[in-house]
Write a structure and sequence with these properties.
CATH architecture of the largest domain: 3-Layer(aba) Sandwich
Strand content: 15-25%
Shape: elongated
Largest sheet: 5 strands, parallel
Oligomer: single chain
Distance between the termini: 80 Å
Low-confidence stretches: none
CATH class of the largest domain: Alpha Beta
Number of helices: 8
Number of domains: 2
Radius of gyration: 29 Å
Order of helices and strands: EHEHEHEEEHEHHEEEEHEEH
CATH topology of the largest domain: Rossmann fold
C-alpha cells in the first residue's frame, strides 16, 4: 500500500531477501484497515537517493514496525531502533538473536561474529526495558502490537496538520515554525528585530514551545499566541528603561535603584530636616 500520501505504519528493519512483510505483517495490517509503507524493493534495486524518501515516510507515519530477526545482521536497524526508543517515538519491535552456526546470505556465522551482532541486541533490550517498550520475538504478535499503537494514536496531531494550522496564524512579520519532537512537536517564531548592541535589524528566534500529539487544534493556536506574547514581552524588556538603564536586565538591582538618594534641598533656618518619603 504505497503512494504519495502519508501512511500509518512504516515497515522498518532489514530488507534484502526477507519475506516477513508480505507473508505476515502486511496481511495483518490490511485486515485491520491500517495503512502502511513498504520500503522493500527488488534485491539490488535500492539506490542512495531512496534514503530521502524513506526518511520522509518515517517522519509522516504514526508508528514504525521494526523486525530484526536472526536471519539478518541488522546492524543499522539495531542502531535505529535504539534511537527511536531513546527519542520516545512510537515503535513496535520484533527482535531475535543471531545463532552461531547459522547461515546468512550463504555465509556461516561463527561464535565471535554472533556475539558481536547480539551485543547490539542486548543493548536494545536493556533500553527498551528501561523505557517500558515491549519487545516481541513473534512477528505476528509484534504486528498486532503495532496495530494497537496505531489505533491509540489515530486522531492525534501530525506535523503536517500543525504546519497547516500555523500557516493560518499571522502576527506582524513573524514566521511560525514547527518540528517533530518526542511525543509531539516544537513551535517557535522567527523574525527580524533590532539588535540592542548594533542597532541594526537581525534575524531572531524565540524559545521553542512543546505541543503534545494529543493536543487539540485549539491548543496549537493558543500555544502560538503564547509564543507571540512571550516574543513581545521580550522586546518590551529590551526597550523598557529607567534612568536610561534596562529595568529587566539580569544585572540590574531594582531595589538598589529605588533606594538611591534624590538630591536634597537646603535645610531651613529652623533646623528641621526635610521629610524623606
Amino acid at each position: 500500500m504505497n503512494g504519495d500520501g502519508p501512511r500509518e505504519v512504516f515497515l522498518g528493519g532489514a530488507c534484502g531477501h526477507t519475506t516477513w512483510r508480505r507473508d505476515i505483517a502486511i496481511p495483518l495490517l490490511e485486515k485491520a484497515g491500517v495503512t502502511y509503507h513498504d520500503p522493500q524493493m527488488g534485491f539490488g534495486d535500492w539506490q542512495e537517493n531512496d534514503q530521502l524518501e524513506e526518511m520522509r515516510r518515517k517522519d509522516e507515519c504514526l508508528v514504525q514496525l521494526f523486525v530484526i530477526t536472526g536471519d539478518t545482521r541488522g546492524v543499522a536497524s539495531v542502531a535505529e531502533v535504539a534511537y527511536l526508543i531513546g527519542a520516545a517515538k512510537p515503535v513496535a519491535i520484533v527482535l531475535t538473536d543471531v545463532e552461531a552456526g547459522s547461515t546468512i546470505y550463504d555465509r556461516e556465522i561463527d561464535r565471535v561474529e554472533a556475539d558481536d551482532l547480539n551485543r547490539g541486541r542486548i543493548f536494545v533490550r536493556a533500553m527498551a526495558e528501561r523505557h517500558g517498550v515491549p519487545i516481541f520475538t513473534d512477528i505476528a504478535r509484534g504486528s498486532q502490537h503495532c496495530i494497537e499503537l496505531v489505533e491509540s494514536l489515530r486522531g492525534t496531531l501530525s506535523l503536517e496538520r500543525v504546519e497547516e494550522m500555523l500557516s493560518r496564524v499571522a502576527f506582524a512579520d513573524l514566521q511560525f515554525n514547527a518540528e517533530l519532537a518526542p511525543g509531539g512537536f516544537h513551535i517557535w517564531l522567527r523574525g527580524l528585530e533590532i539588535d540592542t548592541y548594533t542597532g541594526e535589524p537581525a534575524p531572531q528566534e524565540g524559545r521553542k514551545w512543546f505541543v503534545s500529539v494529543h493536543c487539540t487544534p485549539s491548543d496549537v493556536v493558543r500555544t502560538a499566541f503564547k509564543a507571540v506574547v512571550t516574543w513581545q514581552e521580550h522586546e518590551v524588556r529590551e526597550h523598557f528603561k529607567y534612568s536610561g538603564k534596562r529595568v529587566f536586565s539580569p544585572h540590574l538591582n531594582i531595589e538598589e535603584m529605588a533606594s538611591l538618594k534624590e538630591p536634597q534641598p537646603a535645610e531651613q533656618k529652623s533646623g528641621r530636616k526635610p521629610c524623606r518619603v
